[in-house]
Amino acid sequence: MGDRTNDALDFLETYTGTFPFLVSIKERVDAGRLLSPKQVAAVLKCMAVENKRAEQKEDGPAPPDVVEAGMYRVNDTIYKVQKAVHGSGRLYAKRLVPPDEFGGKAEFVYEPGTIKMLVPADKMTLDEARAFGALYGTCCVCGRTLTDEKSIERGIGPVCEGRV
Fold first, then answer.
1. Residues 110-131: pLDDT tens digits?
2. Between helices 37-58 and 3-14, what is the axis angle to 10°?
3. Are 77 and 89 in contact (CB under 8 A)?
């Protein structure tokens, strides 16, 4: 057996978690069955993830996840968090690209993984979101372009205003 296989077996010997894949592999090993090279590689990947989680716990609690849709600001960058309407129903984030990058129109662009860096403390207050909406002529709740003068002044469209 190679070092990689020994590392995987050592990890499985002390593993006490409930991850179904690792539990099933541990049962195979306990029953005297050998691991394939792909199974060894998968166990080592799981081991790396478990080690990373343990290090994060030592560094202190992880920041809480974003739990609701809305507008968020990190430094000078604005993000819109929304729920996927087709498929998973999970929250995801889009970054506001300033108007000069798209020929005079502000636009929200999806950036994979951005949702993981946002925390509840980054959420904009309603007043901050309305100021953003008035500045960009974009509804601070849904991101649509505002056309009515009163809506532009308020930074929020009439339908969204009824929701908040």
1. 888 788 888 888 888 888 878 8
2. 60
3. no
Encoding tokens for residue 91? 């929250």
Phi first, then psi, for residue 161 (nearest 5°) are: -60, -30
Helices 20-30, 37-58: axis angle to 10 degrees equals 130
State the pairing for strand pair 107-110/91-97: antiparallel
* Paired strand residues for 83: 91
Phi-psi region of 104 (alpha: psi -120 to 50; beta: other; left: phi over 0): left
Q: CB 34: neighbour CB atoms within 10 A?
A: 10
Question: How far apart (Å, rounded) are the C-alpha atoms in residues 80 and 143?
Answer: 8
Q: Domain-by-domain residue ranges, the chain?
A: 3-58, 63-119, 125-164
Quick one: tokens of 29? 């090993």
- Give the per-residue pLDDT at 23: 87
164's CB contacts (< 8 A; 6+ apart) are 126, 141, 156
Q: How far apart are CA 99 and CA 108, in angstroms?
A: 10
Q: How confident is the model at residue 60 (pLDDT cuts 50, 70, 90)?
A: low
Going from the C-alpha of 92 to that of each of 37, 62, 106, 109, the distances in angstroms are 36, 19, 19, 11
